[in-house]
Amino acid sequence: MSENQSLDIFQSIRKDAFGALEEASDFETVHKIEAEYIGKSGRLTKILKSLKEMSLAERKEMGSTANALKKEIEEKIKLKKEEFGERGGSNHRDADWIDITAPGKKISRGHIHPISRVLKEVTSIFESMGFEVVEGPEVETEHYNFDALNIPKEHPARDLWDTFWIKPLKNGLLLRTHTSPNQIRYMEKHQPPLRIIVPGQVFRYEASDSSHGIQFYQLEGLMVDKTTSVANFKALIEQFFKKLFKENIQMRIRPGYFPFVEPGFEVDIKDRSDKWLEVIGAGMIHPQILKNVKLDPSQWQGFAFGMGLDRITMMKYKIDDIRLFHSGDLRFIRQF
Ligand code: PHE
């Protein structure tokens, strides 16, 4: 091989290698080019390996040119690899790289929703007074939500509860409009004396405003015994408010109408701006309801109530719009 020929080879290897590296646009390609030129059987490596068969003069001349070129290519490859994310010869990409000297990130804890807080407190107060917590389905039948509660089809009282019906309509399924169906469900299976509370979500198909949502929490209460009276109900609710608000709040009981109680009441409490806020619907269980669950009204009597947990929570935490509870707005929830 003449000197000029050998220099030509180096020229062309150099041109090819640099051309390819210049065009390479990812790490894998650079890796391939590395193998092609300076890998174990790369073009340049082969020449370097053949040096030992050459004369001393040739070896000197070719060797130094080949080595210089190898260095040049190696450097270019290193730069390219860095560009595509290899660091310091290890196989880790940028994304995997961890700065162990960086200060730790604060782990943020979730927040308990104010309604959950109040629900917990309310149930523990009732439990302390001998009530048991039970639950019922959110998708209810027309039978339990209405008929068994003395609200047959076409009864005008159905208008009190605008209803989300589940299609197809003929199955009579709906989103429960109140927790009262659980009075029936429970009394069908349990004999008095009994004391239960049933917390849960209820749904109403109506326009919403700052004190009405289409979805809210109720807590049903039910107590049946031989002599359970209105006086017992009043005492229970007074005690309950005292324990929950830890201050004397003003409360009033006025007549109200619900087809499954007789007489029926509504309970209001006075809010901070001196306005009466309706928080409970209640009454003495209607004799027909007792008959519906095969209890003898001449032997058993009791009261039932349905408490609006959202409104109680608003009162306790001074929240002025019921829609905030289900808004999903984290700025709201982070305050609690
Ligand atoms: N279920 C009634 C309502 O949602 C409230 C209620 C419960 C009234 C129990 C009387 C007895 O409006």
UniProtKB/TrEMBL annotation:
GO terms for biological process: phenylalanyl-tRNA aminoacylation. Gene3D superfamilies: Bira Bifunctional Protein, Domain 2. InterPro entries: aa-tRNA-synth_II, aa-tRNA-synth_II/BPL/LPL, Phe-tRNA-synth_IIc_asu, Phe-tRNA_ligase_II_N, Phe_tRNA_ligase_alpha1_bac, Phenylalanyl-tRNA_Synthase, tRNA-bd_arm. Residues 116-315 form the Aminoacyl-transfer RNA synthetases class-II family profile domain. This is Phenylalanine--tRNA ligase alpha subunit. Binds 2 magnesium ions per tetramer. Its EC number is 6.1.1.20. Tetramer of two alpha and two beta subunits. It is found in: Cytoplasm. CDD domains: PheRS_alpha_core. It holds the Pfam family tRNA-synt_2d.
